[in-house]
Design goal:
Helices cover about 20% and strands about 30% of the residues. The protein has helices spanning about 40-50, 60-65, 95-100, 115-120; strands at about 15-25, 25-30, 55, 70-75, 90, 105-110, 125-130, 140, 150-160, 170-175. InterPro entries: DHFR, DHFR-like_dom_sf, DHFR_CS, DHFR_dom.
């Protein structure tokens, strides 16, 4: 579960990263589901989050249906009665970050949904964004990135192919520090 190297690699500091796929209009979902199926993005998601704590809302957890193998799931919910034997339940982003620090992790991945992205956005230092090059109908959106606050540090384009119906770009954005 640890990815720790260097002088900042202690439990005193943890990177809050948002990991999201969004279309050209920042649509991230419709009817509590992804509006697309991109095996490349699923593989990317698995590779980025493997061995790390992931934070999601209860609705996102319910849509996935189970804890994801190889990751420590933290579910944020307002429902004090909600329980699942294989996840840690918290009631705030602050609690989730503290829980990830208890694991000794240097990074926590926020994976959705929209309400959790919005509540974590100001705390995020990094965004792993898969930009899907299409416009979908949706009812859930990711916040727009302001170029005054974020810098693109990684940008890898992938053409549509027989397994991935839409072209997409894997991007990493880092928050600018003043």
């Amino acid at each position: 579960m640890e990815r720790e190297n260097g002088p900042d690699a202690g439990i005193d500091h943890i990177v809050v990263s948002l990991l999201v796929a969004a279309d050209e209009n920042n649509v991230i979902g419709k009817d509590n589901k992804l509006p697309w199926h991109l095996p490349n993005d699923l593989k990317y998601f698995k590779n980025q989050t493997w061995g790390m704590p992931i934070l999601m809302g209860r609705k996102t957890f319910d849509s996935i249906g189970k804890p994801l193998q190889g990751r420590k799931s933290i579910v944020i919910t307002r429902n004090k009665e909600w329980k699942h034997p294989d996840v840690d339940m918290v009631h705030s982003t602050k609690e989730a970050i503290a829980k990830a620090k208890e694991y000794g992790a240097k990074e926590i991945f926020v994976i959705g949904g929209a309400e959790i992205f919005n509540s974590s956005f100001d705390k995020a230092q990094r965004i792993y964004l898969t930009r899907v090059h299409h416009q979908f109908e949706g009812d859930v959106y990711f916040p727009a990135l302001d170029a005054n606050d974020w810098v693109l540090t990684h940008n890898r384009f992938c053409h549509a192919d027989e397994k991935n119906a839409w072209s997409h770009t894997f991007q990493v954005w880092e928050r600018k520090h003043s």
